[in-house]
Amino acid sequence: VATLAIPAQFGIPTVVSREIAVCSSLHRWGLGRGVIRWANWSIFVITVILVALSSLLLFIKAPRLPTPEFDTYALALALIPLLALDSLRGGILTGLRRVVLGRLPGEMLRPFVMCCALLVASALAPSMFSTPLEAIALTVCAAMTAYVIGGLILWRVRPVELKTVKPEYAVRHWNLSALPIGLTGGIGVLSQTAGLLIVGSMLPKAVVGQYRVAFLGANLVLMCQGALTNGLAPYYAQFAAKRDHASLRHFSARHAQAALLMSAPLTAIYIAFGSKLLALFFGPSYSQAYWPLVILSIGHLSEAAVGSAGIILYMAKEETSALFGSATGSVINVCAGLMLVPKIGINGAAIAAASSEIVCVLIWSWGVWRRLAIIAGPIPILMSRAIKQRGKD
């Protein structure tokens, strides 16, 4: 169900976040209100189609499913619109530079409601929420609670202009933007799981478990990158709309510096103590996941170094360049994985994934340079410091 929520969004929250940031900067609130209406209707139509198709497939398989399992799947379909609309609301609040409020309902409030319900149930009725159907029911209730409270937050903090101005529309432009962004997101998800699928189809289950641990551990390197990107995205959109390339260059460099400061220490810990940490937390056999962990972490570190390039392309309305980079990286990941995994095992899957990530980031950086004449990453600041130092000498 969580996977189906990704095509239900199809890049729409990112488009809304960008357009709201631009409209607030240029005081074009009519387009801001229009893009919110367009986004709500678009997600409504997409989710209705997805739920209808999923329900049809579920009813076709109903004779082969036990009744509790059928009921669980049927109830879980309610999560598709709730998760998609939650992401949309987060995009609106991010565009309004209310990043924390945008993340609060879905990432903090929903888990908090579930934990509170589980604690109360464990004290009063220990057998409650012991079945999959009850667990899904709790998840749906928590998602609905987060959705309602998130809607109240948005209603409270949105500017007065968004409540009163007459909506204006640029539907064709928004659709053309959402399509490549949605495809880029889908390709990214497939590329991330490609290594696991290839390893799972060619190697023993024990080795698959080792690679999965390395994969999840390396993802911690980018743990703060998403929050950092969401916080800076509205500023990138505003600077791009005003063609303020100097501010874009400065923000990109600072973004890369902050991302490296958060990502490099963990990568260094993995390089120095990764084998011991894996053996300590997962068992001696998992120390064989050391090299995949290091290789994947280095690949993520390259994304942190110039990761602002991707969000700059989104916010500067150069989505096709971002799509080209993601598609190229995914093709490299799959092809290299198929060639290397039979020869060198999970190390080959890690090399393929890291190589594809580096290629993708380089293409994004090249797109930013070609379209905006900006070098993404910390290089401009390092160059300016070197020039100043040379001047002093």
* Shape descriptor: globular
How many whole angstroms does the radius of gyration measure? Answer: 23 Å
Main beta-sheet annotation: none
User: Which oligomerization state do the chains in this entry correspond to?
Assistant: single chain
Q: Terminal Cα separation, in Å?
A: 61 Å
Catalogue the unreliable spans. none
Structural class, from helix and strand content? mainly alpha
Tell me how many strands there are.
Answer: 0
Number of helices: 17
The portion of residues forming beta strands comes to under 5%
Considering the chains and any ligands shown, give keywords for the structure:
globular; 393 residues; single chain
What layout of secondary structure does this protein have?
Blueprint: H1 5-9, H2 12-26, H3 29-61, H4 67-76, H5 79-95, H6 99-124, H7 132-157, H8 161-164, H9 171-202, H10 205-219, H11 225-241, H12 245-282, H13 290-306, H14 308-315, H15 319-344, H16 346-372, H17 379-392
Helix pairs in contact: 2-3, 2-5, 2-11, 3-5, 4-7, 5-6, 5-7, 6-7, 9-15, 9-16, 10-13, 11-12, 11-14, 12-13, 13-16, 14-16, 15-16
Explain how this protein is built.
The protein has 393 residues and is mostly helical. The protein has 17 helices and no strands. The chain has helices spanning 5-9, 12-26, 29-61, 67-76, 79-95, 99-124, 132-157, 161-164, 171-202, 205-219, 225-241, 245-282, 290-306, 308-315, 319-344, 346-372, 379-392. It is globular and about 65 Å long. The mean pLDDT is 84.
Summed up, what is this model?
The protein is mainly α and 393 residues long.
